[in-house]
């Protein structure tokens, strides 16, 4: 029955492809380009067809199918005779019983999913079709969070823009690197400032309202974070060092209206250690000293972004009660502004003095742990506007938008487990990001 259905679909698909070929020629596409596109379509369908015959339906075995698509994307985008190579990959699948991996799998020493991954990812490498097995592996990691149906749906776009799915050297292997790029908004902050809790909260809020989602790797990471939060335990330092990435796809404007977005909020552009090193150099050497690679990376990151979120920790890393903070409020706030915000203003001044245009690039200052410092945005602004009057005045003179927020992240609230999912101040931030970045 399966074979009959597959052949029926094959005939319909070939008819459709033939119509596409003729239509392409009518639209002014050269015969060579149309023929190449036609060959790619046949190769794609042939791959799915042979995969279904040898491994069962791709919907039954999504792990292997996604690995298969990863190979497809890489080969078709990088090899001139990709369809021939792709057929060789199908031969490998068809005769997989002759491979040593098959015997290991039969002996029960290899889990099925691991077997499928190893088989399909090593296939092109064994045939000498792929220069780097690592590239294929990283591509596979990039589509783990995409549904099987989503992969099939994206193949049409891939036919016309294959190279958009191949990540750059700086992005290869990062979660979501095979998706169409969005406008990037880096999230900066010193170590211990609450970036992990902040992004965990952001991912939770946008997911709860259906406005976006974390990528696959971040989703697993946040699930682990929540397990610590529910148990009332701090997040281990090893977890906090991982990059986090949240994609914001839309916001609800009310009265049934939604605004489409394509934004990526992430800590993967600049680590907390790099940020601290850059701030230290800018604080000590200012603009007169020679720029280190870390400061240059900071400069390039700001120029290439569509906005910046700066996490400012008024409380500090040491566990503190609201009463202890209140007793040293002025000292703590001024120290935080001096160490975390003032050097940043110097770095931005570096861009302005270099003649770089950062007009209409919003800066979102997020003051975390509001459940401890218990300050409103207005109260924080009184300190911020006075202490940072000169650099902020220059930025505003360049029409740079400055916004400030006081937020409390998930995991910081008292009470039962579900109470710890309460986050404050994020809706206003998300709405402003949508308005100021997307317009």
Radius of gyration: 26 Å
Number of domains: 2
CATH superfamily of the largest domain: P-loop containing nucleotide triphosphate hydrolases
Approximately what portion of the residues adopt beta-strand conformation?
5-15%
| Uncertain stretches of 5 or more adjacent residues | 23-29, 55-61, 82-131, 148-180, 412-420
At CATH's second level, what is the architecture of the largest domain? 3-Layer(aba) Sandwich
Q: Kindly state the mean pLDDT as a whole number?
A: 66
Strand order of the largest sheet: 2-3-4-1-5-6-7
Number of strands: 7
Looking at the structure, the CATH topology of the largest domain is Rossmann fold
Q: How would you spell out the order of helices and strands?
A: HHHHHHHHEHEHHEEHHEHHEHHHEH
Largest sheet: 7 strands, mixed
Query: Based on helices, strands and strand pairing, what is the structural class?
Result: alpha/beta
Which geometry do the CA atoms define?
globular
CATH class of the largest domain: Alpha Beta
Which range best describes the helical content: under 10%, 10-25%, 25-40%, 40-55%, 55-70% or over 70%? 55-70%
């Amino acid at each position: 029955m399966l074979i009959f259905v597959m052949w029926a679909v094959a005939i319909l698909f070939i008819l459709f492809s033939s119509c596409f070929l003729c239509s392409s020629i009518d639209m002014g596409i050269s015969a060579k380009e149309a023929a190449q596109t036609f060959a790619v379509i046949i190769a794609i369908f042939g791959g799915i067809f042979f995969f279904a015959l040898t491994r069962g339906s791709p919907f039954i075995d999504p792990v292997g199918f996604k690995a298969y698509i990863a190979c497809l994307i890489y080969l078709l985008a990088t090899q001139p005779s990709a369809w021939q190579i792709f057929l060789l990959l199908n031969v490998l699948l068809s005769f997989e019983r002759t491979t040593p991996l098959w015997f290991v799998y039969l002996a029960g020493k290899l889990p099925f999913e691991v077997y499928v991954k190893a088989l399909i990812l090593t296939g092109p490498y064994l045939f000498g079709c792929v220069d780097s097995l690592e590239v294929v592996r990283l591509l596979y990691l990039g589509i783990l969070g995409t549904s099987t149906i989503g992969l099939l749906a994206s193949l049409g776009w891939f036919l016309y823009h294959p190279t958009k799915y191949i990540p750059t050297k700086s992005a290869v292997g990062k979660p979501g690197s095979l998706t169409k790029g969005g406008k990037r908004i880096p999230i900066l902050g010193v170590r211990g400032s609450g970036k992990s809790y902040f992004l965990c909260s952001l991912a939770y809020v946008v997911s709860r309202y259906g406005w976006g989602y974390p990528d696959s790797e971040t989703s697993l990471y946040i699930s682990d974070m929540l397990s610590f939060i529910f148990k009332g335990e701090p997040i281990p330092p090893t977890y906090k060092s991982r990059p986090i990435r949240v994609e914001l796809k839309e916001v609800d404007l009310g009265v049934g209206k939604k605004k489409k977005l394509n934004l990526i909020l992430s800590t993967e552009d600049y680590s907390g250690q790099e940020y601290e090193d850059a701030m230290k150099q800018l604080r000590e050497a200012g603009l007169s000293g020679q720029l280190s690679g870390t400061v240059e990376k900071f400069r390039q990151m700001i120029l290439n972004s569509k906005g910046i979120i700066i996490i400012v920790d008024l409380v500090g890393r040491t566990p503190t009660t609201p009463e202890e903070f209140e007793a040293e409020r002025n000292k703590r706030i001024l120290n935080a502004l001096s160490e975390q915000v003032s050097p940043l203003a110097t770095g931005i001044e570096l861009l302005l003095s270099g003649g770089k245009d950062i007009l209409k690039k919003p800066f979102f200052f997020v003051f975390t742990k509001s459940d401890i410092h218990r300050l409103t945005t207005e109260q924080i602004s009184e300190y911020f506007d006075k202490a940072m009057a000169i650099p902020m005045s220059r930025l505003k003179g360049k029409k740079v938008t400055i916004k400030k927020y006081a937020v409390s992240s998930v995991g910081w609230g008292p009470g039962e487990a579900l109470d710890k999912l309460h986050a404050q101040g994020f809706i206003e931030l998300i709405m402003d990001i949508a308005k100021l970045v997307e317009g």
